[in-house]
């Protein structure tokens, strides 16, 4: 017989109040995305029983969004499992049979491998010319050589000449241009084509980084992102299956949907807030009045907690960190939030009755010749479509139909999100017509991506995989082990009251919750939801996006986040990368084509990849052919990022479809390309629950800012302060694997491991 002893109470021990002996620690996880579900699953499997997940929307999965269109599954959010060796998402998919339908063509080892089979990418200019294959190969070799140079600044500690040059976009453009212009073997016409291709490649890179422009991405930090070895995979049945698997083991009562959080009252604020909490919850248990944290929800409910795990996006933190935390976040964390980057990357799916592309074509890459000398990739609002980098052909057509998947990112993606479907479809159609006449960083432009940090991102070894049944299957697998009661949908959080703020909030909570148990009044944290419910907790795990943190950190936390964390939120980058799927009745591309890459010859000397709003479509870098057609039908998948993606989001489907069609017509020199019969696109930038696609190391930020963002609150090493009241997870909090699904999963497991270690005596005793 095993005995278990717990040391006697000590006035200096933050756990001495009977937390270990009398009850389970109360843990609130904010966000039911991959990070939140992974954290909750790990905690529940380790013996924790008082776990609550607060989700602002009516669904789980966060930035995993698999949508059925006809007989196929399309990914508006997460698309690939990046690498397989040690990748927890890959192992979830493999163990649950989600990759059985994956074809060899869907296992890619390339860096930028949007859906496509091993076919041919068509690089088309806005003058309707296809750039010769040998010119594309020569330029690709040069670009990849310079890309490898960007990795060396972080990986080898190579110094950046000046802060003004600490930009992936600026460095890449300068080096590539000099080499192109100095090549004695090329004619002036070929040089101009290659100069225009620089902007198209940087648009794709911006979609990868989800920055508005690669000018925003830090050169000194770019190499810190780490690639997991192995192929990249898709999940044919949908990435959402991963979400379902995670949720499967979580009781239904744990997850509260439609439960947005208003403010997290923590640390010092707890004592000040306890009276306000008590006002809202007259029957608040006495025990909850001593909680470390109170999570204030938009519905006026206050939830006491010992620990809160925050998994919201970096975009949410950027927007809301000042209001989301009370007291405000430490300056170090604020600085990290502000310095790190996040932007919008959206997808646009266009479905056609028949393909207008050849069977060899796997993508249509848009090269704007007038951008050869451009410095910026920011366009006027009416030109948002110029940020669409390409349309990929979804393959196989038997699965997807005749569908093109476009990508757009940055500010132009936000403009796209405002458009109605008709406008987006019409714009994309016109763009395809124009280009057929004869997107990866979710930055707005690669100019925003830090060169010094670019190499820190780490690739996991192994192939890249898609999940034929949809990435959402990963979500389902995660959710499978979580009881239904754990997840509350449509439960947006208004505020997380933590630390000092809880005591001030307790009276207000009591007013709103007359039957609040006495024990909840001693909670460390109260999560205040939009529906006025207050949920007490010992710990809160915040998993919202960096975009949400950027937007809401001031109101989401009470007291506000420390300045260090606020700075991290503001410095890190997040932007929009959107997908545009176009489905056609029949393919207009050849059977060998796997993508159509747009090269604008007028951009040969361009410095910027920012377009006027009406030219948002110029940010579409390409359309990839979704393969196999037996699965997808005749579908092109386009990518657009940055500010132009936001412009695209404002357009209606008709406008986007028409614009993309015109673009394809122009670049392929084929004026007879029909409008797609269906369009499907993402709108991550304008969605208030995400405010961007995924994070990147923005110019001025570093991997250290990621660690500051991830650091639990409160910071103070006081023996009388309960540690880890508010914890942060989500892709933006993983230093090596930010912007990835495996980074999100690992970050959730990381925060759960901290709590498991903290309560190991209690858990061993219970077992």
TrEMBL record:
One of the record's GO molecular function terms: polyamine oxidase activity
Keywords noted in UniProt: FAD, Flavoprotein
Keyword Mitochondrion among record annotations: no
Domain of life: Eukaryota
Positions of the Amine oxidase domain: 34-437, 474-756
GO biological-process terms attached to the record: spermine catabolic process
Membrane-crossing residue ranges in chain numbering: none
Cofactor: FAD
Protein name: Amine oxidase domain-containing protein
Organism: Callipepla squamata (Scaled quail)
């Amino acid at each position: 017989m095993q005995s278990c002893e717990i040391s006697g109470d000590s006035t200096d021990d933050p756990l001495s109040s009977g937390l270990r002996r009398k009850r389970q620690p109360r843990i609130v996880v904010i966000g039911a995305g991959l990070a939140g579900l992974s954290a909750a699953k790990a905690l529940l499997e380790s013996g924790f029983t008082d776990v609550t997940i607060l989700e602002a929307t009516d669904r789980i999965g966060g930035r995993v969004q698999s949508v059925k269109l006809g007989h196929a599954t399309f990914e508006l959010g997460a698309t690939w499992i990046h690498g397989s060796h040690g990748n927890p998402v890959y192992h979830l998919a493999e163990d649950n049979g989600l990759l059985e339908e994956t074809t060899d063509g869907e296992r890619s080892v390339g860096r930028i491998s949007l859906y496509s089979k091993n076919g041919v990418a068509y690089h088309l200019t806005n003058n309707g010319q296809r750039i010769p294959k040998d010119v594309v190969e020569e330029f690709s070799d040069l670009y990849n050589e310079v890309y490898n140079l960007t990795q060396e600044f972080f990986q080898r500690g190579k110094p950046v000449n000046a802060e003004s040059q600490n930009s992936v976009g600026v460095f890449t453009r300068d080096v590539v241009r000099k080499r192109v212009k100095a090549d004695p073997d090329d004619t002036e016409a070929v040089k101009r084509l290659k100069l225009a291709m620089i902007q198209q490649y940087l648009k794709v890179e911006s979609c990868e980084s989800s920055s508005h422009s690669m000018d925003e991405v830090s050169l000194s930090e770019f190499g810190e992102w780490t690639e997991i070895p192995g192929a990249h995979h898709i999940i044919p049945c949908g990435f959402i299956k991963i979400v379902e698997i995670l949720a499967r083991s979580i009781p239904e009562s744990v997850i509260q949907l439609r439960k947005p959080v208003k403010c997290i009252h923590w640390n010092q604020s707890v004592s000040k807030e306890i009276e306000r909490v008590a006002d809202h919850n007259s029957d608040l248990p006495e025990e909850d009045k001593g909680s470390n944290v109170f999570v204030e929800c938009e519905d006026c409910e206050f939830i006491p907690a010992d620990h809160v795990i925050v998994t919201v996006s970096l975009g949410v933190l950027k927007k809301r960190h000042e209001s989301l935390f009370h007291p405000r976040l430490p300056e170090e964390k604020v600085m990290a939030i502000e310095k790190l980057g996040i932007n919008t990357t959206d997808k646009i799916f266009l479905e056609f009755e028949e393909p207008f592309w050849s069977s060899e074509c796997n993508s249509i890459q848009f090269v704007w010749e007038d951008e050869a000398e451009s410095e910026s990739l920011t366009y006027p609002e009416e030109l948002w479509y110029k940020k669409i980098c390409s349309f990929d052909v979804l393959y196989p057509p038997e699965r997807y139909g005749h569908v093109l998947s476009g990508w757009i990112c940055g500010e132009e993606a936000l403009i796209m999100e405002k458009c109605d479907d008709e406008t987006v479809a019409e714009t994309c159609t016109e763009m395809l017509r124009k280009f057929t006449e004869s997107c990866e960083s979710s930055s707005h432009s690669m100019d925003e991506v830090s060169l010094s940090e670019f190499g820190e991102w780490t690739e996991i070894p192994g192939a890249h995989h898609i999940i034929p049944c949809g990435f959402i299957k990963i979500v389902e697998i995660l959710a499978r082990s979580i009881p239904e009661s754990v997840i509350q949908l449509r439960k947006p959080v208004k505020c997380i009251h933590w630390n000092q703020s809880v005591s001030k909030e307790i009276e207000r909570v009591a007013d709103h919750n007359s039957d609040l148990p006495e024990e909840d009044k001693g909670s460390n944290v109260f999560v205040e939801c939009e529906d006025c419910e207050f949920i007490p907790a010992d710990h809160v795990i915040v998993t919202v996006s960096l975009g949400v943190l950027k937007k809401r950190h001031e109101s989401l936390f009470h007291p506000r986040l420390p300045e260090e964390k606020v700075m991290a939120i503001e410095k890190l980058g997040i932007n929009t990368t959107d997908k545009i799927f176009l489905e056609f009745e029949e393919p207009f591309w050849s059977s060998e084509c796997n993508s159509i890459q747009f090269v604008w010859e007028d951009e040969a000397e361009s410095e910027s990849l920012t377009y006027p709003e009406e030219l948002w479509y110029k940010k579409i870098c390409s359309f990839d052919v979704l393969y196999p057609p037996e699965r997808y039908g005749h579908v092109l998948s386009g990518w657009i990022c940055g500010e132009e993606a936001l412009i695209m989001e404002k357009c209606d489907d008709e406008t986007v479809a028409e614009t993309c069609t015109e673009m394809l017509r122009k670049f392929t020199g084929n004026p007879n390309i029909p409008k797609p019969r269906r369009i499907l696109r993402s709108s991550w930038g304008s969605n208030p629950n995400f405010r961007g696609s995924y994070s990147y190391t923005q110019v001025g930020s570093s991997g250290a800012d990621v660690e500051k963002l991830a650091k639990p609150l409160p910071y103070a090493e006081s023996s009388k302060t309960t540690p880890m009241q508010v914890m942060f997870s989500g892709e933006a909090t993983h230093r090596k694997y930010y912007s990835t699904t495996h980074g999100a999963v690992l970050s959730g497991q990381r925060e759960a491991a901290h709590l498991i270690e903290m309560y190991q005596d209690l858990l061993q005793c219970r077992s």
